[in-house]
Amino acid sequence: MTVKSDLLDIVESAVAMYGIPVVREIFLPDPHPSPDKNAEFGIVILEDGAAGLYYAWLGEAQSGMQGRFAVDEFKGVPAMQLVALYRSEHPADCSLGMAAINAISRSIYRRTAYTREAASNSIGGLEFEQNDHVGMIGYFPSLVRKLREQKINLTVVEKKTKFLQQDDLFRVVLEPECLQDCNKIISTASTLLNNSIDDILLHMQSATDVVVIGPTAGFFPDPLFARGVTAIGGTEIIDADVAVARIRADQRMGDASRKFLVHRNHYPGIQSLLKSGPVPDKRNSLVRKGS
Fold it and tell me: Backbone dihedral region of 200: left (phi > 0), alpha (psi from -120 to 50 degrees) or beta?
């Protein structure tokens, strides 16, 4: 079993138990953004207003999205038809499939009155100490600068050889095996789009804290928690119409979205949520808090 297969099984079970509305709209961002443009996202919106994101700056891996998909053809189709794209080996297909999974996750959480806790920071709630050895999957420039300034030991796993470098406390490598000495690890959620997540998780067993972060991380976290991940942090859309309008206008989503954190120790689990049954879809109803 893989993270992908487990996640798909969960989504299928959730949809079968609760039913999920059809796709209302798909937004694909500008395929050739200007260098100074704000971060781009693709968005899948369901008829009940629940929306899911995918991060749209993965370079060649997502090339041809506009020509690959005629988004108007997806209007009114069952959400599971989009989810099926996540079975593909192609990152462009997986991106759209993951956005649909994120939208379904948001819809199910709303129906079961589960609210993901607001994030305390943008790095999965982690804090760093001088004796840490931090592992990083994907290059987060601002965090790299911060850790280097604090002289904290840092190992970054990258796919592109042009980034390879090494000094006393900092190295960029290709091999995920180098994560085995790290006690705190941060991974980009795009590892669930390029099918590298399972291999990477095999080398995180000695870490006390493993977080997966990024706009793509709006999915049910159960498969990751079962494999040693301690928290996921992502972005969920509060008002899909406003979010899309702001992205079209090259603005940040602002209060149309919020950053969240789900910690393994405080997450009830999808099976518990599904068994609890639906609640009235009232925005001011009592919620079951996570953290």
Answer: alpha
Tokens, residue 147: 């850790």
Angle between helix 91-111 and 3-18 (nearest 10) = 40
Measured CA distances, 199 to 16, 140, 145, 202, 227 (Å): 30, 20, 27, 5, 11
CA atoms 119, 210, 137, 116: torsion sign: negative
Residue 137, phi then psi, degrees to nearest 5: -105, 110
Considering only residues 123 and 58, tell me which one the structure prediction assigns the higher pLDDT: 123
Phi, psi of 41, deg, nearest 5: -135, 145
Give the model confidence (pLDDT) of 11-43 as tens digits: 999 999 998 889 999 998 765 555 566 557 889
By DSSP bridging, strand 51-55 and strand 170-173 are unpaired
CB atoms within 10 A of CB 160: 10
b/e burial code for range 192-225 (CB count within 10 A of at least 16 → b) = bbbbbbbebbebbeebebbbbbbbbbbbbbbbbb
Q: Are 47 and 107 in contact (CB under 8 A)?
A: no
Judge residue 77's burial from the number of C-beta atoms within 10 Å of its C-beta, 0-12 exposed, 13-18 middle, 19 or more buried.
exposed
Distance between CA atoms of residues 254 and 285, nearest Å: 24
Structure confidence at residue 61 as a pLDDT band (50, 70, 90): low
How far is residue 228's CA from residue 202's CA, in Å, rounded to a whole number?
A: 9
Confidence class for position 67, pLDDT limits 50, 70, 90: low
State the alpha helices, DSSP H only, in 19-90.
65-68, 79-83
Strand 41-46 vs strand 51-55: parallel, antiparallel, or unpaired?
Answer: antiparallel
Three-state secondary structure of 4-24: HHHHHHHHHHHHHHHCCCCEE
Nearest to 20 by CA among 54, 47, 60, 56: 47
Task: State how far the Cα of 85 lies from the Cα of 53, in Å rounded to an integer.
Answer: 15
